[in-house]
Amino acid sequence: MKIEIFCLFLITSSLWMMSIEAAREPAVSPYVDATRMPNENYLVDLHRETGLNSVTLAFVLGTGYGCTPSWGGESTLQDSRIINAVKAFKNVGGDVIVATGGAMGPYLEATCSSPDQLADAYKKALDIVDSTHLDIDIEASINVDIMMNALKKLRSMIPSLTISFTMMVQGDDYGIVDILGVDILKRAVQNNVEVNIVNGMTMEFGSKRASWGDAVIAASESLHRQMKQVWPHKSDEELYTMIGVTPMIGRNFNGKIFQIKHAEQLVDWAKQRKIGHLSFWSVGRDNGDCPGGGVSPSCSSIAQNKFEFSKIFQQYSGTHIPDHFSTTKKPSTENPHHSTKPKPLKIDCSTGVQYIPHETYCDKYYWCFEGKPHLEQCANHLVWDPKINSCNYAESAQRTDCI
């Protein structure tokens, strides 16, 4: 009887361990100020005009009442305008990352007095928009011990959780800051908290380079060198897949300007390095409504077309990034999503259909945009689900030819 119980325990434990696998962070997910979305169709319109399939909702903060998660510290998590916009976005295949912190307070990480409180606050924010992606933007002092213990508890509640830290860059030849950057990453290692993405906030930092595009890339390479010190056992390739890069499009407060050509340069570099994540601040500024003006939350202050940066960054979303996000098992050398039943399919975008499954590969699909098919690829471990027009787990999609 004891042997049978022990065997059952081993089988159950093995199955549980195999099921724990962090979700791949969306390759492209620019920030959207959730409190500034003009209407409930905003995210759907963004998707239809640019093809963007993911956004990072900023920011979930505490309130004057303490550890109560809210949008921007002013709107409840249940704010119908925000929730309805997210639901509509998800209905067309969109994904969202929930970001906490930012330039303004009060931080949840500072107002929550215990790991349990903070973990519950994180989970409420993720659950309300059905997300497993948490981004913590650290620009002020926090209780690091409480945050680390909260993240460990949160991952036990959400095994597929993806954790990213967005951190301030000090200089292009230095990388991210020490106290609110590298030191926190080292604490994560000490506390056995897996970090999936280190997102360099490549804005407002010091540089003597003539090109701000060169400066952003140099800062990201410096971040890579810093990460090598934090995770010396990881390969250069793996560390690049853990890097996120987030410039501020258009005019920065330090007088530098991130131009359209710099966005194209960054995407080309990201493709070479297989960077894990690209973002920018912010979609609300991605327009040419105030060329030559000062820094504004509602425009880039340069001459540009509407959503021009979004369309350029979106070009990176189809890039294959080596998968090193598994928390318990190494990625298979075989493609689990290669269908054994090829079905020749004529890609005809003249019928008004927006999404068409790939004729051979389960994790690929065609997105019809402006009358032409664009080949897209789901994040690793997901397949295309034609019932909901979105990427999904093979089991949930009932794609038996992909399991």
From TrEMBL:
One of its GO terms (cellular component) is extracellular region. Residues 1-22 form the signal peptide. Residues 346-403 form the Chitin-binding type-2 domain. The keyword Signal applies. SMART domains: ChtBD2. CDD domains: GH18_PF-ChiA-like. It comes from the Eukaryota. It holds the Pfam family CBM_14. GO terms for molecular function: chitin binding. Keywords: Signal. PANTHER family: BIFUNCTIONAL CHITINASE/LYSOZYME-RELATED, GH18 DOMAIN-CONTAINING PROTEIN-RELATED. This is Chitin-binding type-2 domain-containing protein. It comes from Dermatophagoides farinae.
